[in-house]
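In the previous lecture we treated proteins in isolation. Real proteins rarely work alone, and many bind small molecules. This record shows how such a complex is specified: first the sequence, then the SMILES for zinc ion.
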Amino acid sequence: MNQNDPSQFDAAKSDVQRKTLEQRDQIDELARLRHSCAHILATAVLRLWPDAQLDIGPWTDEGFYYDFDLQHRFTPDDFPKIEEEMRKITKENQVFEKSIKTRDEARAHFEAKGQRFKLERLADIPEGEAISFFQNGEFVDLCAGPHVMRTGNVKPGAIKLLRVASAYFRGNEKNPQLQRLYGTAFKTKDDLENWIKLQEEAKKRDHRRIGAEMGLFAFDSDYVGPGLALWLPKGGVLVEELERLAKETEFQAGYVRVRTPHLAKEKMYKTSGHLPYYAESMFPPMELAEDGAPAATEAAPAGAPPRHVERYYLKAMNCPHHHRIFAAEPRSYRDLPLRLAEYGTCYRYEQSGELFGLMRVRSMNMNDAHIYCTAEQFAEEFRAVNEMYLKYFRIFGLDRYQMRFSTHDPSRLGQKFVNEPELWKKTEDMVRQVLIESGINYIEVPNEAAFYGPKIDVQVWSAIGREFTIATNQVDFAVPARFGLTYRDRDNTEKTPLCIHRAPLGTHERFIGFLIEHYAGNFPLWLAPEQVRVLTIGEEQPLLDYAKGIVQELRSQFVRVEGDFGSNPIKAKIADAEKARVHTMLVIGLRDLEAGVVSVRLHSKGPQGARPKAEAIAGIVSDIRERR
Ligand SMILES: [Zn+2]
Ligand SMILES: [Zn+2]
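The predicted 3D structure, ligand included, written as tokens:
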């Protein structure tokens, strides 16, 4: 599930979504190679542990995996042995041979092999779709492909097993737990080695590590619960600064702010279409009796009147609440576009095995807004949203980004896509045109739009070149109608508005997780939890007065400043400040006092020379204001 998707859940959650045949045709070379490696991995594991039960082996962004069920517990100690076997298989240069089987033949094949997960996967293939098998050497797998031609197309030195994890069959806790072997593969050995280096750099920048070092956030599984981040004061600063940025930016772009509760009645999510389909991704409901008292768990006393029980759900997305705000007052075309913004808190039930630091959590604060507009206003609104993205990219120094524009497939209108052929065509054309005119780097992905409209996933690359999906931007033709949203048009008729869902800064959790890696915790001045520290050389009273005066002056301008006036030698004070990643250090001794200057030192950049006190303070204040 993409946690930055403001309005939608991925139906498949952690399970792999079945790809259509058209989608499979578009798979790039690297994915083909990696998926072939999954077959090679399964071949190797079966050679070493012939009684292993197999599930599936897809490619991933990182490489590939294969899920196994066997008595032996895999550990990293097994990896060299398995990798050796995989290399052997590449050298055997086996051909990937395709064959088509009837459903009965396929079933008989897996029954004979006793592969019970494969039998279930077989049942997933829709009636009428070809059932294809691929064989390499002695290994036969149910698979639609695509693969490389031969195992020899994989370079033996360019494969690496990464880790083992447990995964439930179909990602469902009620199913058996399998062992998932993750690996990766590249076209060349060099590519693999570069990737390994990048991983090491990423490890140093791991947001969980830096977050703990800097005291940004904490998780308290005992008292608060897993996946529910607590923002410590320094992390709270990051949250506040991002919200201020969003509020100022949205204010200037004509948004209005709203506030909504964290829960709503079942009816809300039935109307939005999230229930029952995505119930598993939501926290279980709270049941309340009609009069507000909790529903009795024990049987009601005989003769007691039946009590109506109402179900409430924690919200997993903000859209339905905003839709109800739209509906709260009569709307006319003069009110449009209406841009409702909120840093809304959402809750999603992620399985505990899926939780990962700030990147995958159960409670998240989203930079959400919904723009209700007419079809005529759409292009302009969409263009403005894009400009907002670009503004944010500049502020955060993100020069590598890409927008993935997912469109519909006309042959699947009314099934996978809401049946509004003209609206699809019109909005997709407009989106495409805006993307081209803005000179935005984008790719178009057919057949992956949301049910109710085209969508754009925004991918950015951190300073060390790791890719993150930070935000989603969607057009919605269907849901406003389900909620009965209308406005009175010029011609006095009631019309349904379009809705744009957008969340450029994603969620605080994920975006800050990303920023920690991007900056390696060395935040720019405007974001730094501790912006300035004043360090004294010596303890003379006039010096202390001078130093305290500087602290006071900065604080009166809302600069986050601390003083270190103790008796430690200056070297130790600087080391402390460097360790705490304080952005700017103002070092002052008696000579600075006499000259009315401060010696400026920047974190990890060293001394910058002396500057007149007033000039240094003005510079800091203006850099913060300019978000530098
Ligand atoms: Zn395959
Ligand atoms: Zn939304």
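Summary for your notes: The chain has a mean pLDDT of 91. The chain has 18 helices and 27 strands.
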